[in-house]
Structure formats: structure tokens, C-alpha cells
Amino acid sequence: MMRQQPSRLPSPAVNTKPALDPRESWKVFQIMTEFVEGFEALSNISPSVSIFGSARFAPDHPVYTLAEEIGRALSEAGFAVVTGGGPGVMEAANKGAYAGPSQSIGLNIQLPHEQPANPYQNVALTFRHFFARKVMFVKHASAYVVLPGGFGTLDELAEIMTLVQTGKSRRIPIILVQSQFWAGLLQWLRDILLDGYHTINPEDLDLLTVVDDAESVVEAIFGHYEYCGFEPSAEEEEMLLHL
Q: Which residue of 104, 110, 128, 185 is most buried, as measured by CB atoms within 10 A?
């Protein structure tokens, strides 16, 4: 009995789609505009501190209150405060800074479900692209302050740790606020990444400082810069140029 030959596969459909969607080319200019506007608007905010945390905390939540205290303390210490410009921790930190003498800055982001901008911003920028926004958080920051939050907060924390660890950004204080919230993550970093799988070095954990109140945040930042100025050195400027 003759074996039946397998039926021939259908010919692939002719690809009539253009090799490059013209919108992709124009998007390059959109991205360039975001970078240029961000660099120009933030060029004179040094020293500044970038603050992160959940957008979900209501004004009556203890973390919101703590973020507001930190924003006010940093503003009174002479730091511009930079947040993502939204509600929750971002609003609280901007609110505290807005009540102080230094600038309160929001780097807002356009999302599918609109993130409302909080009203406590002396300087408000709006970005379409997360990556352009992330550069603005890092480029001018003298410190990162990270309060309890979700995936976005963890993403920003991992970003700055990676940039400092790999030498793509200058070493700045990375301050985790509320030790109880961060205890489990820090234990996992030590037990699994460091001791279990050896995917980080012991000195990588030294990048992090853990505190519980606004005064300790300010002290940690000034302690880091005790023997050097807040302005980047020539070498650090070059490093940030190629961020």
C-alpha cells in the first residue's frame, strides 16, 4: 500500500507591511524631545534627592505621613525633592517639600489608566517613556530614598543599585525607609543571592542604608558627603554623560 504523501504546507502570505512603520522614525524625535526638555528643566536643581514609594497610600496612612516629613526635612536641609509626581508617597513627599524652601519636582508619566498629578509641584514634567523618566531620576540625584512600595518602587531600587554596582552611575546614598518593610528582602539578598547562589558580592549590600525616620534620612545623606561636595567630580560628570 502506498504511503500518502503529506499535504504541502500553504505558501506563506506575502508580507505587504512596510519594512519600517514611519511612526517608529518619528518616535525617535519624540524621545529626543523628552530628554532635551528634561535636561533643560532639571539642570539647576542640584543638590536633589529622588524619592520613591507606593501610589496607593492614602493621606491618613503612616507611610504617607512619614514621606511628607521626609520631603519637608530634605527641603529645609537644602535639597530639591524629585518624585514621580503622582499620588501616595509621591504626593506626600512633594507636599512636604512644597511647604519648605526648596523646589518640589514631579516627573509625571502618561499611563493607560491616567495617573493624576499631585498639586504640590513647583516643576512638573510629563513623560511618555519610562526609560527617559528613569534617566532624569538618576542623572541629577544626590541620593535615592525608597519607601514601601510595589513593583515600580522595586524597579527603581534595582535600577539604581545596578547602575552604581556596574559603574554606570556615581555612588550615591541609597536609603531604604522603614526597616520592618525591607527586612524580608534584605534577608533574601543575604541568604540567597549572596550566600546561596553567590550572584552578588558582600560589598553590594553596603550600597544600602536602612533608616526609620526623616531625621535619619538627612543624616545619612550628609554623612555620605561629609568629605566630598554634592557636585559630581569631573570623572563622575563624564560617567553621567554616558548614563
A: 104
